[in-house]
Amino acid sequence: MEEINYEDVISQLKSELNTQAAIANNYGIVLASGIDEFAEGKIIPQKILEVINAREKVAEELNLETINSFALEAEENNYLFTFSKNLILISKLDLEVNLAKFMPSVRAFVKNLSKKSKKDEIKEFTYFDFKKEISKIEKGFQKESMDEKKYSIIKDLIKYISE
User: Fold this and answer.
1) Residue 52 and residue 90 in one domain
2) Does 1 fall in a domain?
3) Using CB atoms within 10 A as the burial measure, which of 22, 31, 40, 55 is most buried?
4) For 111-163, what is each residue's pLDDT tens digit?
5) Reported pTM
6) CB burial class (10 A; 0-12, 13-18, 19+) of residue 49?
7) pLDDT score recorded for residue 118
8) For residue 136, is it within any domain?
9) What is the pLDDT of residues 8-28, one digit of tens each?
10) CA distance 53 to 27
11) Same domain, yes or no, for 12 and 84?
């Protein structure tokens, strides 16, 4: 599977939807960003991650099947958090943007991006031979102890001569 260039995705969002955006993995690590508050390589603040991770419980409390996104309104901007199983898309929007019209486009975009980012499953496991590794370690210890014995004779000889 080919690697997704998240910087290109951020640029595409900027040009097509006219929004600043950031993409994070499901652990909250920002993979790419056009938003200063969510810089690349940083982690989404813990309280926001807690809300995202609690979305299934919140949906259950509200008798909903799922919660796909939530919005935060700040003094100058709205922050829209849209999530899939693997990714979190953060959009920074002007207060004038109609979220009802914007959200379906973003949701479709995240769904499509999430399909592309699915990782290949490990189909074949290799077995680790502990016996082989333990025997290598034991041989190493034996060799070291033999070397110590050799050098202890030389040390004793040097001590004897220096006295």
Assistant:
1) yes
2) no
3) 22
4) 777 777 655 444 555 666 777 878 888 888 787 777 666 677 777 778 888 87
5) 0.65
6) middle
7) 55
8) yes
9) 888 888 888 788 999 998 889
10) 10
11) yes
Q: What six digits make up the tokens of 84? A: 């899939």
**Residue 125 neighbours by CB distance under 10 Å:** 6
Cβ proximity of 96 and 76 under 8 Å: no
| Higher pLDDT pick, 53 / 117 | 53
Pick from 84, 49, 89, 45: nearest CA to 67? 84
First to last CA, the chain: 71
Please give the order of strands across the beta sheet that includes 77-83: 30-33, 20-25, 87-94, 77-83, 69-73
Only one residue has tokens 């370690």, namely 137
Q: Torsions phi, psi of 127, nearest 5?
A: -90, 140
* Residue 10, domain member (yes or no): yes
Mean pLDDT of the chain: 82
For residues 96-121, average pLDDT: 74
Q: Which residues contact residue 80 at a Cβ distance below 8 angstroms, ignoring those fewer than 6 apart? A: 69, 70, 71, 90, 91, 93, 99, 102, 103, 106
